[in-house]
Amino acid sequence: MTIVCDTSERGRQDAAKRIPTARITGDLDTLLTSGVDAVLVLTPDNQHAAVAVRTLKAGIPTFCEKPLDITVEAADLILQTAFETGTRLYVGHNMRHMPVIAQMRELIEDGRIGEVKAIWCRHFVGAGGDFYFKDWHAERANVTSLLLQKGAHDIDVIHWLAGAYTQRVSAVGDLAVYGDVPNRRDNKGRRMRDWYSVDNWPPGEQTDLAETIDVEDISMMNMVLDNGVLASYQQCHFTPDYWRNYTIIGTRGRMENFGDGVGGTINLWTTRGSGFPQPDEVIEIEDGNGGHGGADPLLIEEFLNFAVHGGTTRTNPVAARQAVAAGVLATESLRGDGSAREVPPLPNDLMEYFETGQRDLVRD
């Protein structure tokens, strides 16, 4: 049995058309008592904890979309609830399944560049105006910041590639372009396909931006990880191109991706040269079936298997919380004086529980 719960009439109508065999409701209690084997929490970010805490208390294995929530306190509440109830929790950090990321991690684990010491990520968000500045993403109340909302992916990837979590963070940022765009409207009831156009360019000439915009369109954060790795993440929402560039520097070389999907490459430099030498090795980025290079179906497949059988997974609720914490504290820094913020630790029992596959309390 499939059931879809959506508080909006349009959402329920869309669900009925796309999944005609599904039961449709606007009442969460109806879903909680429906007898479903697992649930996907796909609400706006600031409602993740509000729903996930209830599904976990109901004993339903829960997939929570990233970011886990928009505050450290809400993220911790989700983890604490999963720990106390023994209900399986999974977080949708699909980039861990993207070929470019999986390939770079494998190269690191194989020792191809030695011990990782630094990671830089530049994120060019060419569709930023259309994707994030015309709907609920444009307001702090819904996302805290795009450094968290969008950056949670990359912060998690940085942690995964480095094998550590952020301990201290600082940041700067600004609403540099979209705050000055005068063409605004109320987009409630509309969706991205109603306004998206690659011809709506340059950024200062975007049309139909949200009436309220109070999130930054450019952000830069520096991180000190708990194993000593230094990392940085830069995000810009008014670039003409749309892709992620990772540079990972180790004690025996470095790697860098050019493009983040099929047709792109991962380049390795492992011998000394001068100027801009040709890479010692060029590896083509693989492709898969489905969205994000095949990552999306792999993510759902892993969740469903976890919901039934449990065990360790490529994604990790602790890692998801640590990405939220880094993003939230970086936002505090950039909206303050740019000084460093310390990431609050999780209790050891929660860390151990989730890092070892949620086995201690799971009711098999």
UniProtKB/TrEMBL annotation:
TM ranges: none
Domain Gfo/Idh/MocA-like oxidoreductase C-terminal: 105-336
GO-annotated molecular function: nucleotide binding
Superkingdom field: Bacteria
Pfam family of the protein (one): GFO_IDH_MocA_C
Domain called Gfo/Idh/MocA-like oxidoreductase N-terminal: residue spans: 3-93
Family affiliation: Belongs to the Gfo/Idh/MocA family.
Name of the protein in its database record: Putative dehydrogenase
Native source species: Arthrobacter pigmenti
Taxonomic lineage from the root: Bacteria, Bacillati, Actinomycetota, Actinomycetes, Micrococcales
